[in-house]
Known about the structure:
Blueprint: H1 17-37, H2 48-55
Amino acid sequence: MRRRLTSTSTGHAPITPTPQVWQARVASAPAVDAFLASGRDESGFVDLEEIQGRRR
Length: 56
């Protein structure tokens, strides 16, 4: 099923969810870089995939 795109006030089609996700990732990159540069140790955390695997 195709989704109909409606025009915005600028005459352009609205941004689809995929570009919005990538825009958010690009916008958060400086914060991620700062966190990694801070030297914080995350080795004590449990991997989410490991927890989800236990539940199934």
